[in-house]
Amino acid sequence: MRFDEILLAIISRLDGERYKHAAFHLMKGKRSGQTLQDTEYYGLHPFFGMLPSLSNAEFDLAYGRLLGEDAIRESDGGLVSLTASGKERADRLPQSRLNGWVYRGRERIFFARLALAVQTISHLKTGDRSFVPVTNDPAIQQDVRKVLLPALRNASPAAVRDEVVSSLRDTGMDDGRLGRLAGRLSGKGLTGLTWMQLSEASGMDVIDLKVEWVESLHIWLGGIESGKFPFLTALAEGIRPDSPLTGSARKTDELYRNGLGMEEIAARRRLKMSTIEDHFVEIAINDPLFPLGRFVPDEEAAAVAEEMKRLGTRKLSLLKEKFPGLSYFQLRLTLARMGKEDGNGNDQSRTAHPIAETHHRI
Fold first, then answer.
1. Distances from the Cα of 196 to the Cαs of 59, 183, 193, 346, in angstroms?
2. Which residues contact 121 (CB under 8 A, 6 or more apart)?
3. Among 92, 230, 233, 331, which is most buried by a count of CB atoms within 10 Å?
4. Residue 265 CB contacts under 8 Å (≥ 6 apart), including other chains
């Protein structure tokens, strides 16, 4: 998918309920409570964190094109929705194979390791041990040493090359895409192409090349996870995070599981309560056993769910008007848990949660 198509796909799911920068923050992978909620509420997981370095200028250019093509419109209040022609166009969009929620931008670490490994092997094959590495990141260099040296003791450079070729062939990606992916790599006597050079050679816009590159890495990593390719599996170690939570949210979760209330966590960590609330929303989104009933009475949560269905919206402001007795935090938690209901409509968060059975204050 091209960048404009992805932006249109995101807006089609947020249709009329968010401002334009909701899509921008989603693509960059902003770990705010609002962006994480939007990812869960609207099923935008493939696009989360897909372009961490996306600039405002790049985004605005694509957004302006969609406005100019009458695919989207803004309300007087700034909310973005599809036009009739935009809806028709959105219905015809191809399926994306992005997997942003899983990799969170870490596919770039994999590619940096791969690029250095390829460069190193190509030089060592000719006996050249003196070259300027494509990355000066000491962590990447250490990762490659850890993987490459054992691999070359047990297999030839040709075997490593064959593993790369075989794994890419298994992805089913076409030769043009594979050529553009390989075009970013450097080797002995060959320098990887810049985005602009690749754009000139392919006729594709730079932003579309970046999207394709990320999607290609996601597809490739998915195949590598089969375990069939030992060298690449080692290069991909740690690329898929063990926990979907941010480091800060994990610390909050650990303290909560040890029996601390929200105020105690905020005091101990010297964080604002709004930050702790964002952490709890993130935990509720990612933990299928989150005990919502400790924060929102069951009957209130059920009523919010019914009202949301009746209104056909997830706008917090409208729900707050209907449920003035619930805080915005309680409403956010309720909406976060609604995305985790099973296929029969049974909320699994009501089952036992493996944390200390103490009273946890809102």
1. 18, 12, 8, 51
2. 148, 152, 157, 160, 161
3. 331
4. 252, 255, 256, 271, 276
Per-residue pLDDT of the chain (362 residues; tens, 9 = 90+): 999 999 999 999 998 989 999 999 999 999 888 898 889 889 999 999 999 999 999 999 999 999 999 999 999 999 999 999 999 999 999 999 999 999 989 999 999 999 999 999 998 888 887 889 999 999 999 999 999 988 888 878 888 889 999 999 999 999 999 999 999 999 888 899 999 999 999 999 999 999 999 999 999 999 999 889 999 999 999 999 877 787 889 999 999 999 999 999 999 999 999 999 999 999 998 888 899 999 999 999 999 989 988 888 788 888 999 999 999 999 999 988 875 553 333 333 333 333 333 333 33
Instruction: Please name the residues in contact with 150: beta carbons below 8 A apart, sequence gap of 6 or more.
Output: none
State residue 347 phi and psi, 5-degree precision: -80, 110
d(CA 29, CA 55) in angstroms, rounded, equals 13
